[in-house]
Amino acid sequence: AQTVTQSQPEMSVQEAETVTLSCTYDTSESDYYLFWYKQPPSRQMILVIRQEAYKQQNATENRFSVNFQKAAKSFSLKISDSQLGDAAMYFCAYNTGNQFYFGTGTSLTVIP
Amino acid sequence: NAGVMQNPRHLVRRRGQEARLRCSPMKGHSHVYWYRQLPEEGLKFMVYLQKENIIDESGMPKERFSAEFPKEGPSILRIQQVVRGDSAAYFCASSPHKYTEAFFGQGTRLTVV
């Protein structure tokens, strides 16, 4: 079964601090892509970062970075120097080619 | 390059009516995905289309729901004889290739009264 698990329904972080959102997945595919999407109150799904499964190097995009552990099927998102605009629902997802599988999301609150 | 455009943004239908949701992918994107999101839930896959072809419709209910992506024009998700349980946000996403990231539209919120 193809599943994505986000075990933290809610997280909070002080502004300027660092927070890590967890994600594990289960797939029998050997080639796939992993993503983190952000959904603010506007409901627009915004791509935060992507990781190719065949790459060992962790992806980084400005204040956002991932810790990809392929053997453990773990794909966590680290947000550094958190800003008020980072408050949103964050979804982990992977793409095997025919569809994106999404987790249930983590709601991130940023405390001023 | 305009983003993925979905219309209408909000749609209200009475039970038994038909709902048509439109999605214009980003320029150069030939892969389209439709997802449904219920309140406080994640996104559930419905269908994956590539120009004129349905590639994977495993997430779409067998009855009342259909999707198309014609050679010309937007992709259409059609829901016939809507029921209250169809009320949800429907998102369309497009991508240039099969394995890359998808870009989402702003969604259509369907309310069935």
If you had to describe this structure to a student in words, what would you say it looks like?
The complex is a heterodimer of chains A (112) and B (113). Chain A is mostly beta strands. Helix content of chain A is 0%, strand content 53%. Chain A contains no helices and twelve strands. Chain A has strands spanning 3-5, 10-14, 19-21, 24-26, 33-39, 46-52, 60-61, 64-69, 74-79, 88-95, 100-102, 106-111. In chain A, the strands form three sheets. In chain A, strands 2, 5, 6, 10, 11 and 12 form a six-stranded mixed sheet that branches. In chain A, strands 3-9-8-7 form a four-stranded antiparallel sheet, with no helix packed on it. A two-stranded antiparallel sheet of chain A has the order 1-4. Chain A starts with a strand and ends with a strand. The relative contact order of chain A is 0.34. The model of chain A has no long low-confidence stretch (mean pLDDT 93). Chain B is mostly beta strands and 113 residues long. Chain B contains no helices and eleven strands. In chain B, strands 2, 4, 5, 6, 9, 10 and 11 form a seven-stranded mixed sheet that branches. Chain B has a four-stranded antiparallel sheet with strand order 1-3-8-7, with no helix packed on it. In chain B, strand 5 and strand 6 form a beta hairpin. The model of chain B has no long low-confidence stretch (mean pLDDT 93). Chains A and B meet through strand 5, strand 6 and strand 11 of A and strand 5, strand 9 and strand 10 of B.
